[in-house]
Every structure is written in structure tokens, then in C-alpha cells.
Amino acid sequence: MAEGWTPGSWRTREALQLPRYPDPRELAAVEEELRALPPLVTSWEILALRQRIAEAQEGRCFLLQGGDCAEAFDGCTPEVISNRLKVLLQMSLVLVHGLRKPVVRVGRFAGQYAKPRSADTETIDGVTLPSYRGDMVNAPAFTAAARTPDPRRMIKAHARSAMTMNFVRALIDGGFADLHHPEYWDLAWVGHSPLAAEYRRMVEQVADSVHFMETLSGEAVHNLRRVDFYTSHEALLLPYEEPLTRQVPRHWGWFNLSTHFPWIGMRTAGLDGAHVEYFRGIRNPVAVKVGPSVTPDALLRLVEVLNPGNEPGRLTLVHRMGAGRIGECLPPLLKAVQREGARVLWVCDPMHGNTENTSNGYKTRRFANIASELEQAAEIHAAAGTRLGGVHLELTGEDVTECLGGARELTERDLERAYRSSVDPRLNYEQALELSMRIVRSQGGAP
């Protein structure tokens, strides 16, 4: 166990990106209420994911992590959840088919209700209010009542996370992910997609392969009827994470039971900060976002703090450099970690380093830049003798127009049609599916 660590030892460190609640007593009461609520995941699920990440570190499987930039309470509906799951299942089918290896599916949902912001306040027409920090903290409407941080929202977030996980588990256990019927995953609005024919060709090939195996063996291949699915979120709001950090029977140490796979964002990855202090003591597999400003020495110190025993499956490094900077910034980091012999899973987040604002006022990302960063990452890892073991994406199963380009070549004028994100732009289904095909090609496969 980490020396001198407790679930609350983060409170002795500087805690960035936390909201200022007006009533500390109400906050404390909510934390006590959270301590009495059931956990959202189990320790054996967490340890199973840790083993899968260790396998991904060795190149025996590939990590696909994706979902909303920030979940909204009103997005906890059967349609939104099932469409999001369909996209991840379809992407994983493309990856399995092309890479010829298992895929570890991790949803960026069931807890992604808090977001870091570049400024604590926002000013409109001379009025200054707290920034919107996600539905777990406050509401997006620009009013004093909506923007005041409310600790009761953590209870609502727990409830919606539980409902999301229950529905996902019920879908998977009920055969929603059955490889015998991948046609169940189709989204009605994309029947006219330029990629539809290529995807259906893959579905037919997989179905033929399953039929062949079952004909050969004379019995059904039962492990194709369901998949393992894990959750992840940025563990930003520490007053929420601490009460859900528990000890369990028959396992040593402490587990964050709000999610299987928490990560630290780039803004809160300071070595002496509260978030690193919290993360160093939990037994979950953990990830850290690594931006272009991180130096090799700083990264090695962070790796040592978060994984001092160099344990397999413990630490994932998610680089997010931007298409224009990855060639310069990533190779020194790979070389330093490789030289130290540190066991990490390298994952590419091609979304966050490629954000820009359009002339008509929309925050967006260009599909060409997203694909470029991903393809450059694969080339850089290959040249360094390291392994790109996964991707981390912001995406949705809804018919949104938030990122430019892709198969339908969305333009700035298209953004006005269906821009729904309250924080960051997401890939829609077509763009996500196209990117999965690019991933296969960048890894030397052929869908």
C-alpha cells in the first residue's frame, strides 16, 4: 500500500479544478450520504480490466475507449445509451476484424459528469458567473441559480451512473452484443452512409466465420454471445471520488468503486497536486493525459509516483499532442519511458490537441487532423520500437454535426444543423466508424 496514503490525504495538497461550494456543511452531508450508497462497480471487475490492460501492454489486445466529452443528466435515456454502445461495438468489430486481436472496450460514460475548465468564471454582457463544470457540479444555463455549484448534484450523478451501468449490463447480458447478430447494432440514420457498404461487408465476413466455426465444431460458440465492457471517467471531482473509495473483503488495499478506469486530466496532473496524491493509493488501473508541454523528466517522476512497483496493467499514458506537434513532442517521451523500462500502455487521444474555433463561432475539430495525429502516432511508435496499444475518443451515436470533414465532408455551415455538445465537439457515428478503419490501416491491418 502507498506509504502515508489515505482516501482523504489529497485534502492536504493543492486541489485544482474543484468548484467552490457555498455551504461546506451541505457538502460534508452529501459526502456522508455517498459513503452509504452502493458502489457502481466491483473490485473483481477492476482487477479483470487491469489484467486486460496488462495484455494490451504486451500487444495481445487493443484498447478502445470512447464516449461523450461530458455526459448530461438528460442524456440518461435508453436511446442515447444504446446508440453509444452500438457505435463502440461496431468500432470494435472493425478493429477485431482488421487487427486480428481482441479489443478491450471501455466506455467513457456512467460517470463522465464533471469537466475541467480553462477559467473559473465566464462573463457575458458584463455579467460574471461561475463556469459550467458539468452536470455533476452545476447547470449550463447562464443564470446565477444554474451556475452555483450544488453538492446535491453528486447524488444525482451517482443515480444516473447506476442507471446507465444497469442498462448497459442488461443489454449485454441479454445478447445485445451477440456476434451472431451484429445487425442489431445498426443505427437507422446512417443507412445512407458512404461507409455502410464496407461495414456490411465486414459484418457478413464475421458472420460467415462464426457459422464456419460452429459448423466445424458442431456446437455454438457461446463466448461470442456477450462481451466484457468497462467504464471510465476523469476522476476530477475528488469530494465525489473519495466517498466511493472502499476496502472490500478478500482483497487488500483501496478501490475506487465509482468506475473501473479513472484518469487524470492534463490540467490536474501536477506531481504535488491533490489528484496525483489521490490516484497513487487506489488499486484501479489508472491513466494520465500527457500533453505537449510535458518533459521527459516530469513524466518519469509521475510514472514513479503512480506505479512505483512497475506493475503490469497499472498505468496508461494517453498522449494528446495535436497533429502539428506530435512529431516533435512524442518521441522524447517514448525514449525516456523505454529507457527506464517502465511498463505502461501507450494510448493516443487524437481529439483534444486538435480543437479550434470556426469563423461562425463554433468549437470544432477537423477529422483530417484527428486522423493525421492518429496515423503519425502509429508511425512514431513503430520507429521508436514501442507499441501504440489503444485510442481514446470523444464520440456519440447521435446524428450530430460537431467535427468538420469525414466521409460526408461536413463544412462550417453544417455545424449549425446539429451541434449539441455543451462542452467539446464529438465524432458522430460515420466519423467514428471511418476512424476505426484508419486505425486498422495505421496498425498494418486491412479491413
UniProtKB/TrEMBL annotation:
Binding site for Mn(2+): C69, H352, E394, D424
MF terms (GO), sorted A to Z: 3-deoxy-7-phosphoheptulonate synthase activity
Lineage per the UniProt record: Bacteria, Pseudomonadati, Pseudomonadota, Gammaproteobacteria, Lysobacterales
Pfam families associated with the record: DAHP_synth_2
Cofactor binding description: Binds 1 divalent cation per subunit. The enzyme is active with manganese, cobalt or cadmium ions.
Keywords for this protein: Cadmium, Cobalt, Manganese, Transferase
A single BP term in Gene Ontology: aromatic amino acid family biosynthetic process
Cofactor(s) needed: Mn(2+); Co(2+); Cd(2+)
Residue sites binding phosphoenolpyruvate per the record: R108, K289, R320
UniProt enzyme class: transferase
Official protein name in the record: Phospho-2-dehydro-3-deoxyheptonate aldolase
Record-linked InterPro entries: Aldolase_TIM, DAHP_synth_2
EC number: 2.5.1.54
Annotated Gene3D superfamilies: Aldolase class I
Reaction(s) catalysed by this chain's protein: D-erythrose 4-phosphate + phosphoenolpyruvate + H2O = 7-phospho-2-dehydro-3-deoxy-D-arabino-heptonate + phosphate
